[in-house]
Specification:
The chain is of the alpha+beta class. The chain is 45% helix and 13% strand. The longest helix is centred in the C-terminal third of the chain and has 26 residues.
Length: 383
Amino acid sequence: MASVDQDSHPEVVLDQFGDQVRRWLSTVRRPFGLRDYGATPTESDLEAGRAWQRMLAKAGWACIAWPSTWGGRGASAAEQAVFAEECAQAGVPRQLNIVGPDLVGPVLLAHGSEPQRQKWLPRIRSGDDLWCQLFSEPDAGSDVAGIATRARRAGQGWVVNGRKIWSSGARSADLGLLLVRTGTDRYDLSMLALPMGTSGVEVRPIRQMDGESKFNEVTFDDVGVDDWCLLGRPGDGWKLAMSTLGSERQTLGAQAVALAAHLDDTTRIRPPVGGLARQDYAALWTRIFLLRLNFRRLLGAGRPLGDPLFSTLKLEATELQRDLCRYGVGQAGPAAMSWTGAPPTGTTRFLAQPGQTIAGGTSEIQRNIVAERVLGLPREKTT
């Protein structure tokens, strides 16, 4: 595969990189049934998703942020964003799921032991192992440090008891990235790699409004975990959990692509008629354009994906999706709920949208981050 000229201007380098991705996507024969299912495959997507991951790995497009010694490309955040955008344009997922390549991989590379890396990294890259994230709890959603699931020492390992919720893909996962409490201090947390088939682990799917069941509730009843599965050291869990934040922000450009396609679909089915409708259309088009432009601008300035400024774009992306659904319903009225055609349909989009303001950090949390860490406003006093 041709290399990108790293001595060129950054924008030229990104364009060259995008050309490489586009050429490969235009020529590769896709697995039957493959669709752009987003960050998490449904059970019906698994066969095609795993086949796609194998194809990505064989062609050198899997886990591109990883170093070359582990099969990656050492891609920058900007290159990862370009790859996500090109996949969105082509209507394919950029990888099997988000947790293994984007969350577990970096944790293993930075904090895992060499045997752990040797065992798990190649299987993540090839799609042989599917991972889920086990952080959120019924009483600790956005408050990660408030988790109650506990692991206590027992011989050469740990015994885990507790409950997790909103765990995407847990029913199909081979392993889970599990955050547990191992001490009395609020931040005395640890992280374990949990084989999901372990005795005492129960996974119950949660049916969503849009008819899918990507989320799950997971309970742990005296689950034994070998000490070999501890990532980092006891008490490192908070640090490791924080290192995973921001990974999903690399898809903001791809989200802008999907939003533009959604607006095009809506306009094709119900063109804006009248001055007010055309104004609404123009406002949505402009916001989508600016979302993608500002995302590129922050990446071009070298801002890391964990930078709080990306919270402004995450907030805008989810609220754009909400306003876009409302625009479509306003244009078509009740007929919007019976739109047919290539998925997602108008019904699916409308019902799935509210969850987007929760996933990856609620809109309320994003506003707090912007207020405190971008604008420098004082933290709200609590009683």
